[in-house]
Design goal:
Number of strands: 3
Strand content: 5-15%
Order of helices and strands: HHHHEHHEEHH
CATH topology of the largest domain: Arc Repressor Mutant, subunit A
CATH architecture of the largest domain: Orthogonal Bundle
Radius of gyration: 17 Å
CATH class of the largest domain: Mainly Alpha
Strand order of the largest sheet: 1-3-2
Oligomer: single chain
Length: 158
C-alpha cells in the first residue's frame, strides 16, 4: 500500500485513473513497481497508448479545441472548428472518456477536461500547443462567436 501511495504521489486522481486501468487489463503483467510515477506520467502513458504521436496525431486537434475553449463545448462545435465529421469526433471523445467530463449545457451534450491537471498536461504537449496556436490564430473569432452565441437550438446527441 505504501508503494502505491508513493507511485500516486499522494494524489487521489491518480487512483481514480490507475485502479480502473488495472481492472480493465491495461497492466496485464501487473507489478506495482511498473505503474507510472505520478499523474503526469499516467497521462503520458495513456497518450502513447492512444497513438497520439503516431497515426492518431491528427486527433490532437480535437483535444486542443477543448483546451483552447476553456469551457464545455459540444461535439458539433468541435467538429465544425476542426473541419471533421461529428460522429468521428464523438468516437475520439469516447476513447478519451475517462479524462473528459460530459454535461448538458443549454440542451446540448458538452465536453470539457475532467480535471485541471489533464488540461495542463495537454497544454504542455507540443502537438497540442501547435494545434491550439493554429486554432487561435485562424479561428479565434469563430470559436468565440460559437461559444458566446445562443446555442438554444437543442441539438441533441446520442
Amino acid at each position: 500500500m505504501d508503494l502505491l501511495a508513493e507511485k500516486s504521489e499522494y494524489n487521489f486522481m491518480y487512483l481514480r485513473y490507475v485502479l480502473p486501468a488495472i481492472a480493465e487489463g491495461f497492466y496485464r503483467d501487473f507489478s506495482i513497481k511498473e505503474l507510472p510515477q505520478g499523474l503526469l506520467d499516467y497521462y503520458d502513458q495513456h497518450w502513447q497508448r492512444m497513438g497520439m504521436e503516431g497515426e492518431n496525431r491528427p486527433n490532437g486537434i480535437l483535444l486542443s479545441i477543448l483546451v483552447a475553449a476553456g469551457t464545455p463545448v459540444s461535439s458539433k462545435l468541435i467538429a465544425d472548428t476542426a473541419g471533421r465529421d461529428r460522429y468521428e469526433v464523438l468516437e475520439v471523445l469516447e476513447r478519451w472518456r475517462g479524462f473528459l467530463k460530459k454535461e448538458r449545457v443549454e440542451g446540448q451534450e458538452c465536453y470539457s477536461t475532467y480535471h485541471y491537471t489533464f488540461a495542463e498536461f495537454l497544454q504542455e504537449k507540443p502537438a497540442i500547443k501547435r494545434e491550439a496556436a493554429k486554432l487561435l490564430a485562424a479561428k479565434n473569432d469563430r470559436i468565440r462567436e460559437a461559444l458566446t452565441a445562443d446555442e438554444g437550438e437543442g441539438d441533441e446527441e446520442e
